[in-house]
Amino acid sequence: MHYLNEQFWHAQIELGGVDEPLRYKYIVMGSDGVATEEWGNDRILDHASRPVSEVVLIDTWNFAGEYENAFYTQPFQQTLLLETKGASRKVKWPDTYTHEFRVKAPLLKANEVLCLAGSSPGAGAWSIVDPMLGKRENNWWVFRLDLSKDTFPMAYKYGVYDIEGGQFIQYEGGDNRLLYEGGGYDKIKILHDGFVRLPNNTWKGAGVTVPVFSLRSAQSFGVGEFTDIALLVDWVKATGMKLIQILPVNDTNATGTWVDSYPYAAISAYALHPLYLNVGRVAAKDHAALLKSMKKKQKELNDLPEVDYEEVMRCKLTTLRKIYERVGDTFEQHPDYQLYFEKNRHWLVPYAAFCYFRDVYGTADFYAWKEHARYEETAINRFVEPGQAPYVEIAFYYFLQYHLHLQLTEAVHYAHQQGIILKGDIPIGIYRYSCDAWQAPRLFNMEVQAGAPPDAFATRGQNWGFPTYNWQRMHQDGYEWWKSRFEQMSHYFDAFRIDHILGFFRIWSISMQEVEGILGRFVPALPVQVNELAEKGLSFVPSRYTKPYITEDVLWDMFGSNKGHFHEFLRPNGSDGFYELRPEFSTQRQVEQHFADVIANDNTAFLRQGLYDLISNVILFEEEGSGYTRFHFRFAMEQTASFRHLDADTRGKVYDLYVDYYFRRQDDFWGREAMERLPALKRATNMLICGEDLGLVPHCVPEVMRQLGILSLEVQRMPKRLGVEFSHPGQAPYLSVVTPSTHDMSTIRGWWEEDRGRTQRFFNTILGLPGDAPFFCEPPINRMIIEQHLNSGAMWSIFQLQDILGSDGSLRRENPQAERINVPANAKHYWRYRMHLSLERLLAEEGFNGAFRESIERAGRV
C-alpha cells in the first residue's frame, strides 16, 4: 500500500473474473521484518452482488488490544451477550445507494439499536427525531445511504436509539466523524468505522474457581465429577456469578499412584480423565445392578475429608470394566459414537494404543517398552484394527473417552442454558512420558526439563520435569499441534487460562542432570560474552565462576559445625583449603540417585540438600559448546557463597553484568519471541484468553499482552510494580482478572496467619483500618477483601471457592491450612483438596447466597 496522507494508506486491486466474496485484512510489516496483523476475520466484500464498476473501501485498523474485541469472543457471543446484543428490526434502505457504513457496537441493551445522523440532507441533517436506524449483519451494524446529491466533507456520528420507547438516547463520544468524498451509483463507498465510541469497559463479571476433583455432592464417588458441574452451575447462578474456572481435566494416569493427582502432568493434551466419570450414568438402568456392591465403598470414599486418589481410581476402573464387558461393542454401533470417533481419531487412536502399552509394560515410559517404543502411525493403525487380539482392551479407552465427552458436554450445555461460561486451563508443558511426546517427540526438547526460577514461594526454583517446546519445529507447520489442541478445548470451554504465559516469551530450562529449578536458565537468552567480562576489568578464570566454589570457609558459612559431614563427598582441588565434588557427586541427579539407595532420615535429607546447595554454588553457566566464550548467570547468584567470597570491587562489577543480563538485554528479544508465537496461537481460537503472568515478569510482557488483548492476572499479594508490597484491585487494568489468591497459594485466611508484620501493613494500608490487625482473618475482614475485588474496574473478579466461603463463620472450614490446593515448592504434592460442604448444602444456604449476590450487583457485575 502507498501512504496517501496523514490518515490514509491506499491500494487498488483488480477483481475481474473473480466472483467469490473477498475476505481480507490488513498487515503492518515492521522494519525488523515482523508482521503484525490486525485482529478479526470479518471483513468480507461480496462484490459480485453489487453491479458497479468500482467499490471503494475505507477501513479502520482493528487493533487486537481494543477492549471491544473481547466481546466478539466465544463466551460473549454465544452466552453472555445473547440478551444484550441490541435489538434489530426491518430497516428500509433506499433502492439505490452510494455509501455503506459499517460499525460495531457489542454492548447495546436489548431494546437498543444504532442510528446514524450527519450534517448533510442524505444523512438526516442531524435529526434525532426519526434518525437512520442500522441493521445488524453478523458483527456489524450496517447503514446504506444515498448521498449522491450531498456536498462534502460530511460530518456524522453514530448514536443509540431506544426502539421500545421510540426515542433517541445519546450520541457516541469524541469528535465528529468525517466523510471527505461522495460517490455514485456505479462507484459505491463502504466504510468500516471500527467500534462505536461508547464506554467500552462497562461490562464486568464475577466467577468462582474450583478444581472438578474438589467438588462434593451426595451422588459423587469420593471425588468431584463432570455431572457435579450442574449443581455448581445452579449455585453460581443463585449468587449472580457468570463464570466457573477449573483446573486441567486431562488424563494424568501415568504411574497408577497418587502421584498422578497432579493435574498439570497429562498423558494426553486431548483425553479427559476417567477420574471425573460418573459411573452410575455410564451404567444407566441396564447395568445398575453392577453398582449395588459398590454403594458402601462409595459412601466411605465420599465421606472422606479429602480425595483418596488411588482408591477412587481403583474402584471406578474396576466397575467401568465390568460395565464395558456387558456392553461389548454395541456402543460402537451408535451414530453419535461413530461421529465422535471420526472427529477425534487423530488423537483418540494413539491415546488408546498408548494406554494399552502402558498397561501391558507397566510403565508410561515408552522408551522402556519392548515394542512400539517409537511411534509409527502405519504400524499403530494396523495394531488397533478391529479383529486384532488387543482390540477389546484398546476399545475400552474409546468407551471411556466417549462417555467422558458425553458427560462434560452435557454439563457445558447446561451451564450455557443458565447463562454461565466455563473457563479451562492450558498447562504450559506436557508430561515427559505422555502420548503427545510418544507420538511427536520432534515437537519437544526431550533432553531438558521445564520449570521456574526461584521466588518467594519456591526459594530453590521449580522443576516440573516437562520437556520444553521445540518452537522452531512447531513454527514450520504453522503451530498445527496448538491449533488442534485449542480446537479440542473449544468443544468444552468458552475461555481458558494460559498457565505460565511467560513461557511463551522464554522458558526456564534445566539440564536433565539437575534436580532443582535453581540450576536452570532462560531459553532463549542473549548470553554474556567473555569480552564483556574483560571490558569490565574482571580477571576472569572460568573455573572460579562456573564451578562450585568450595573452601573450608564456605563450608563453615553454609553448614557451620556440621561441615565435617561433607568431606567424604569432596576431594582436594589444588592448593590447601580448596575442594571439588567427587566425580560421582558432581550433579544433583547423581546425588539424588545415591541417596535413593540409603535409608531416609533427617541426617540423609540434610546431606542431600547440602550437596544440592554446594552444586548450585556457582555464578555462571557456560553455554554448551561455546569454548568458555559465552555464559549465562545463575539466578540469584548474589545469594551464593561463591559470590560473597569475591572481593568488593569484583562483586560490584559482576552484579552490574547480572542486572543487565536479567533486566535489560533480554527484554526486546523476549518480546519478539512472544510476538512470533502468541498471535498465531490466538488466531487459532475464538475463546477468551487469559494469561497467568505471575513471577519474574519481563518489562515486555504487559505490552505484548496489551497488543494482543490477552487478559492479565492481578493478584493482590503479588504486585507487578517494583517496590510495592501489595497491589490494589482498584488499580487493575480493565482487560484483566483480579483475584486474592490462586490454587498455587494459601487462601485469604491462610495467608493472613503466615506473616504477622505483613498482615499488619496490609490491614492498615490496603484495608485502611486503624490499630492492630486481628490475629485471625475473621469473616468481616475476609468479606472486605472480597468486596474490594468485586469493586475493581477489571473485567473479571474470580475467587477461589474457599475465599468466598471464608466470609461466613458458619460455612467456612475450621482450619484454613486445610483449604490449600497446591504447594508449588513441593514437587511431590498430593492434589486432594475437597469441599467440606456438599453442593446441595451450599445451594440451600439462601441467606448467604442472597447476600453474596447483592454484593456482586452493588459492584455492577452483571
Description:
Strands 33-24-19-18-17-36-35-34 form an eight-stranded parallel beta sheet. The protein has a five-stranded mixed beta sheet with strand order 7-16-8-12-11, with no helix packed on it. Strands 9, 10, 13, 14 and 15 form a five-stranded antiparallel beta sheet that branches. A hairpin with a 5-residue loop joins β29 and β30. α2 (229-239) runs parallel beside α8 (391-417) and α15 runs antiparallel to α16. It is 32% helix and 16% strand. The chain is of the alpha/beta class. The chain is built from 26 helices and 36 strands.
The major sheet is characterized as: 8 strands, parallel
Which range best describes the helical content: under 10%, 10-25%, 25-40%, 40-55%, 55-70% or over 70%? 25-40%
H/I helix tally: 26
Task: Report strand %.
Answer: 15-25%
Shape: globular
**Separation, N- and C-terminal Cα atoms:** 44 Å
Low-confidence region ranges = none
Average of per-residue pLDDT values: 93
* Structural class by helix and strand composition: alpha/beta
Radius of gyration (CA) equals 31 Å
Number-wise, the strands total 36
Key traits:
single chain; five-stranded mixed sheet; eight-stranded parallel sheet; 36 strands; 32% helix; 862 residues; alpha/beta
Question: How do you describe this structure in short?
Answer:
The protein is an alpha/beta fold and 862 residues long. 32% of the residues lie in helices and 16% in strands.
